[in-house]
Amino acid sequence: MYIGVIGGQFCSDEEERIAYEVGSLLARRGAVLICGGLGGVMEASCKGAKEAGGTTIGILPGPFRGDANPFVDHAIATDMGQARNAVIVRTADAVIAVGGEYGTLSEIAMALKMGKKVVAISSWEISRHGIRDEKIIRAESAEEAVNAVLGPERRG
What are the C-alpha distances in Å from 31 to residues 66, 113, 124, 125? Predict the structure, then answer.
C-alpha cells in the first residue's frame, strides 16, 4: 500500500517524533510512504521509513528534484505549488496527518472527498454546524494510526 504522511514543513519536536515513528512503522509493515518531499513532518517520516528499510516518494511543489529532503528515494518535481497536494492524496491509498497547517487541511479535505481513509494525530478537527466530522479517525499514537490504515499487525 501507498500511505500518505502529511503535515507541516515546520513542526514541533513532538510532531517530528511522531512522524518519524509513523514512517518507521509503515516501512516495517511494507508500505510505501508518499509525502510532499520537503522538511518537517515530511522529512521526519521519510527518515523513519528509510532507517527501517522502506521506500519513500516525495511529490514536490517546485520544479527541482534536488529540493527533496535527503530521505526521499523517488522525487517527483511537479512545479505545481500547493496543487501538488491533490497528486499526493490521489496516489495514496490512505492518509495519516501529523499536525499541519492549511496545506495539510487541504489534503485532508481532498482525501475525504476522494473517499480515502484519513487518520489524524494532533491534527485538524473538522465540524459543520458544531457537529464533528467522524470520517476523520483520531489516533493517539503512531502505532494506532498505522494500525488504522493497515489493520492490526499480526503477531506470532
Answer: 24, 23, 24, 26
pTM, full prediction: 0.96
- The sign of the dihedral angle between the CA atoms of 111, 115, 121, 124 is positive
Domains of the chain: 2-125 (3.40.50.450)
Q: What is the pLDDT of residues 51-101, one digit of tens each?
A: 999 999 999 999 999 999 999 999 999 999 999 999 999 999 999 999 999
- Please report, for residues 19, 110, 123, 153, the alpha-carbon distance to residue 86 in angstroms, rounded to integers and kept in the order given: 21, 7, 19, 29
Q: What DSSP string describes 71-112?
A: T-SEEEE---GGGHHHHHHHH-SEEEEES--HHHHHHHHHHH
